Amino acid sequence: MQDFCAGQNLRDFKIIFRTPLRIKSGGTLLRENRLNLDILLDSIHKRYLAILGQDLSNFPRPLSGAVSHAKLHFTELTRYSNRQQTAMNLGGLMGEIAVQNASDAEWAWLRLGELIGVGKQTAFGLGNYEIRGIDENN
Q1: Taking all residues of the chain, what is their mean pLDDT, rounded to a whole number?
Q2: pLDDT tens figures, 47-78
Q3: 3-state secondary structure of 129
Q4: Mean pLDDT across the stretch 84-103?
Q5: pLDDT score of 47
Q6: Are 23 and 92 in contact (CB under 8 A)?
Q7: Is the preceding omega at residue 62 within 30 degrees of 0, hence cis?
Q8: CB neighbours of 45 closer than 8 A, spacing ≥ 6?
Q9: Cβ distance 99 to 37 under 8 Å?
Q10: In the chain, pLDDT over 70 holds for what percent of residues?
C-alpha cells in the first residue's frame, strides 16, 4: 500500500463526491451531514477486502484524521429495472467534506477509494470522489 501513494501525502484536504455516495451506517442509509471519516474508511476497507475475496473487517482504530467541515446534500436518482419491472432508488450524498490531520495510512486508503469507489452500487458508478488540496478551486 505504501508504493501506491508515493509522492505528496496531504494532512488537510477536501473530498468532493462526483457521483452519489450511497452508504449505510447502523443499517440506515446516511443522509446529509452524518458522514464521518470512520464510516468512509470502513467502507473503503471492506470494499478492498471484498475485491480480494477476503473476510471483511473494520478499518483499524484509532483514527487521527477527522471531518472538520461538511457540505453534503442527498440527491435522489432512480433507474428502471426491466428484469424486476420496477423503479430502483439509487440516491446518495453529494457535495464535499474537509478532512484534517489525516495520517499517512488514512491518506493511502482514501486515495485507494478514489480508484475503487466507496459505498453501495459502485457497479452503477456511485461512490466516485476526488481528493483535492484545501486551497485548490473546483
Answers
A1: 87
A2: 999 999 988 787 888 889 999 999 999 998 88
A3: strand
A4: 91
A5: 93
A6: yes
A7: yes
A8: 57, 58, 59, 109
A9: yes
A10: 92
- What confidence score (pLDDT) does residue 135 get? 76
Kind plus residue range of the DSSP H or E element containing 15:
strand 13-21
Q: How far apart are CA 42 and CA 59, in angstroms?
A: 5
CA–CA distance, 5 with 8 (Å, rounded to integer): 8
* Domain boundary assignment for the chain: 7-133
Write the DSSP assignment of 65-129 as a string of letters.
-EEEEEEEEEE--EEEETTTTEEEE--EEEEEEEEES--HHHHHHHHHHHHH--SB-GGGT-S-E
Tell me if 21 sits within 8 A of 118, measured CB to CB: yes
* Residues ≥6 apart with Cβ < 8 Å to 80: 86, 87, 88
In this prediction, residue 59 carries a pLDDT of 83
Is the bond preceding residue 60 a cis peptide, omega within 30 degrees? no
Q: Is residue 44 within 8 Å of 113, Cβ to Cβ?
A: yes
| Residue 102 half-sphere exposure toward CB, CA atoms < 13 A | 29
Confidence of residue 82 (pLDDT cuts 50, 70, 90): confident
The CATH code of domain 7-133 reads 3.30.70.1900
